[in-house]
Amino acid sequence: MDVFSKIIKTPSVVAEIGLCHNGSIELAKEMIKQCADAGATAVKFQKRDVENLAISSVLNSIDGRFPNFGETYKQIREHIEFSLDEFQELFEYAKNIGIPIFSSVFDVKSAKDLVSLGSKCFKVASHCLTHMPLINYLAENKLDVLISTGMATMEEVDLSINMLKSAGCRVGIYHCVSKYPHTSKDANLLMIKKLKDRYGLPVGYSSHEPDNISAFLAIAMGAMSIEKHVTLDNNLEGFDHKIAQNIDGLKDLVTGVENAYLSLGNGMKMITKDEALTREKYHWSIVPTKTIQEGDTLSENNITVKNPSGGIPSKFFYQVLGKKARKELKKDTFFQLSDLSN
Predict the structure, then answer these.
(1) What is the pTM of this model?
(2) pLDDT of residue 52 exceeding 90
(3) Fold exhibited by the domain 273-339
């Protein structure tokens, strides 16, 4: 399954399951199923090499956020992290129900592990944009890359994007604000156009707002994809549940993104079939304000414009002034150009 092509086909919605599975393979499968039922284009997970994620003092620090997961930061991360066998199981499950699946990778080992399972499309999170060994591995292997640009300078984005493009990778970019959650005023959606113009690549929006308003506006700004964290229960213990959309919110996102995209139209000015009916009813025609005798001259004293269409369109009002009636024209009735002298 060509995951990359499906995601960059406008409009798409990536359901970021991320860490909201809480390390449970059964919860992860249920999330995949419900995201598919909600109409998501793809589901995304996260993979880390926990042992080398941070320096030992950070890994071994006491962390009381999620006591059911562990007592230290490392224990919490290990509780949530899926093994390679579990990822294989999830990939097969998603394939069987027909939804594309891929993962963010935070290090070279994780990328290699998923490549060994046949994965070819990867997400690079914002804080990995400058992880040059990871970017280099993805580039050298010409893998498909979707890369977020939160908390980065344009020069840093240039560095990674140019490395991937030069290697011949297919690349998609996500505008992202790395604040969890953030408000609409932080969204800075004008960056979508700037990124498209600068790199000539598909650009999406990684949305971290509690609602979907900015996501819909992002589509109007030209975003090809919306990525959003999802959960089955915002009250669950663990990372990201509080900032994630529940399934009802995901359904609203999918419907709204599709409608936002459809509302863009084709950019061509035309009278639609439905508009033609309204135009016929409400457009203006030139009509006499009193009976005009044959040979009389049309003037602003004896013609006006009224609904509906059917007579001479009102846009020709000033062109018919001064012409003579070739026959009697009754008040409030339509007449045609053939009823006037040249």
Answers:
(1) 0.89
(2) yes
(3) Type Iii Antifreeze Protein Isoform Hplc 12 (3.90.1210)
